[in-house]
Design goal:
Layout lengths: L13 E4 L2 E5 L4 E2 L9 E9 L5 E7 L4 E7 L15 E4 L2 E2 L9 E7 L3 E9 L4 E11 L2 E8 L12 E8 L4 E8 L8
Parallel strand pairs: 8-14
Antiparallel strand pairs: 1-2, 2-3, 4-5, 5-6, 7-9, 9-12, 10-11, 10-13, 13-14
Length: about 190
Amino acid sequence: MALDFPASPTNGQVFTSGGISWVFDGEKWNVQTVDSEGDVGMWPSLKLDSQGNAHIAYYDLDNARLKYAFLSADYTSPIPELSPAEVRIGNNVMDPDNPEKSSCRIMYNLSREQDITIKVYDLSGNLVQTIIEKVPKSPGTHGDDTWNGKNMGGVQVNPGIYYIVVEGDNWKDARKVAIIKGSTLDE
């Protein structure tokens, strides 16, 4: 089957055939690869927003993680980095009655300088707390941000499951945290 690419494409123009999309970079047509390291690409989802930006979500089987990528509507640059090398939560089971377990530390690695936002959401997707918003962070390992289990009003949240979402310039990564109360936790 021969592909019938447009004769005079414009920079950033998208051509789709047989479920595969190509992007014209001003000189040639290119297929964009989001991630090819390891066993990735399970259950992909692609959504174009109202501005024409591409949002791509897929599962990384090797690391048991849902990943997210973003491509701006002009399609003139390659898909940016998906996420830092790793986002980890220290003490992902919190107990407000136990001073040693009453908060969690959020750790992440960055390959380049970028603005970082960290927010906490409940299972219904409601914003519970903004820890930092668009704070410039340098490349390297970071672990100085914490959540104390309180909402924006300074009130301790109810026991349950919460998501801490760390967001960079063009990526997001979420981690689950449980709040329990009145229990003794052993590590």
